[in-house]
Design goal:
With 193 residues, the protein is of the alpha+beta class. It has four helices and ten strands, in the order ααββββββααββββ.
Length: 193
């Protein structure tokens, strides 16, 4: 690759902003952890509420802000048997349901799921893999809280990408194989004390 002045400038800009993005991720994780530590809602307490709405596959759990007023857990659930996709948002401070939205999985008879997503969901169902049960196990094992978990499918492997945070260990990312339950650490960022 021939390095021209514009290319060098672009690469420099990317390299300069990488530490800023890293710092923002850590700060967001720290703020989320503070909210989780001061709130009463946890993955354990919210799971039964989610399951009363749908017993489908949880494809994503994300700790995020809700209308810039509070921190909330957002759940995305795909229920192929009911033909619906659910988006549920729960307050961290008290576990109350802030938002519930459901949509059909098909439009005019055509599935809204692409082949890769459908395959990933089928693999979770086949393996009877329960991401909530696994997250509870990981939170106990690492004395951490869940920031995010998302179902992924790459190179024929179906897995959840999980981000955890704790005051002792900082932020860490794991990949959880749906077929075997195996966990592979991807990243560990120690918090600065």
């Amino acid at each position: 690759m021939k390095l021209t002045l514009p290319t060098i400038g672009l690469l420099s800009a990317v390299l300069i902003t990488m530490p800023i993005a890293h710092a923002n991720d850590q700060q967001d994780a720290a703020i989320g952890l503070m909210a989780l530590n001061s709130g009463s809602a946890t993955i354990t307490t919210l799971a039964p509420q989610v399951r009363t709405v749908s017993t489908g596959v949880i494809t994503e759990i994300e700790l995020d802000d809700y209308k810039d007023t509070q921190i909330a857990y957002k759940f995305k659930v795909i229920d192929t048997k009911a033909g619906k996709k659910f988006k549920l948002t729960y307050a961290i401070n008290d576990g109350s349901l802030l938002r519930e939205k459901s949509e059909n999985l098909s439009t005019l008879g055509f599935s809204d799921l692409d082949r890769e997503d459908r395959n990933a969901i089928e693999q979770v169902e086949k393996a009877q893999f329960d991401i909530v049960k696994k997250l509870i196990e990981l939170e106990t094992k690492y004395s951490a809280k869940t920031l995010e978990a998302e179902l992924e499918s790459k190179k024929g492997v179906v897995f959840y990408e999980v981000e955890l945070a704790s005051t002792e260990r900082g932020m860490q990312k794991l990949l959880i194989n749906v077929a075997t339950g195996e966990e592979i650490p991807v990243m560990h960022r120690q918090s600065h004390k």
